[in-house]
Design goal:
mainly beta; about 450 residues; 7-stranded mixed β-sheet; 6-stranded mixed β-sheet; single chain
Amino acid sequence: DGIFDVTERIGYTAGTIGTGFTTGQINDSSSFVISLACTRPAGIHRLRIRGVLAIDGVQIDPCLEYGYGETEDYDVTILPPPACPSITGLAAGTPGSFNVVLNWNQGCAESAWNVEYGPVGFTPGTGTTVPAGTNVNFDLTGLASSTNYDVYVSANCGVDGTSAAFGPVAFTTTVAPCAGTPTQSTTVSSVGAACLAQNFTLSMNQTYTDLQIAYQWQFSINNVDWTDIAGATSATRVQTQSEATWYRCIVTCNASSQSMTSTAIQVTMGLPTQCYCEATYTVGKTDGDLISQVQVTGTTLNNNSGTSPTNPAFTFFNTLPEHTGNLQAGTTYNVNVTYGSFTAQQCAVWIDFNENGVFETPSERVGFTTSNSTAGFQTVSFPISLPCNPIPGVKRMRVRNVYFTNGNTIDPCASYSYGETEDYNVTVLAPPPCPSVTGLAAGTP
């Protein structure tokens, strides 16, 4: 009829295309869909494409005068519709746990459709197909909760066959609420024996992913009398303890008001000699602040750990003969420590004589340096003195190096920036029948 009616607009861009301009060059381009209704008469028709500066496509008028832009007209031949056109506009509503409502636009005159769904990325023809009836709104049920799906819809045109599948449209079903009694579970601990003040993690061998699940961790000293752990209402619990303790978790489905109590587990206390603090550093050895060799003169302990500035900065050496030695109580030895490439290093040594898992200061600190190193890879010597009264046996010895820190102030467990710590096992022997004196000094004559 010579008029481009609003009902005859078959497509437009969703927004403006490109920014700015360069004379003589294409600034940007855009692709968009045009859709022809099934009822359009076949034959030759005029097609108009109009571009306008800074005007959204949906607002462009086919005839109005604008400041900037271009319009191009073409003749196109409209053919009769296919026997069974595809649907358009497939969309999924807000999914539930086990369903989703689909809607789409009718292809042409068809009145029945097929819905096919499956895991994301499935090939049409390999999914699950259900007839969608005669309504373009369809409640797809029987889905699994917390699952990603793709869905396609094809028109069922009876004797004219079925259309090509339109899609995919992706959606994800939601987590389902719990029901009944939660599955029986067993308590799991990240450690079997815990050290004093050591963090360990409690969990369960079952995972509960449904909605409306609640947790309450409990503890007991005797596995009879149980007490709630305040604030322990998550699926896992980070815990500390000072004595052997039993743990369990009550898991409740709030939707059904039914509960399950996990099988309890006991976490014992580790032996003190298994619970030495780990000496930590924020940087460690990587700048050359390290121990490359430890030697106790007169013993077999002579460990060359190398000069590579590579962490870890804490190591317990206990696998080779040169990692240990015999030290006699009531005796003084010289310790030779060789540092790495960085200067201004100092060192201290402890022996856990009472085997309580703690390097006590000053009673178990047996020696330390008194000045900073002045050269790279320097070896320093200093005495360590053993008291006369320790119980003979295997003891843990700690050698700790820290950058620019006085030896008598180095802590065996604190965190420092630069340095390295090495632990060893040494065997303390009974003192000699007549030990030598130590610390001989003369006052002012």
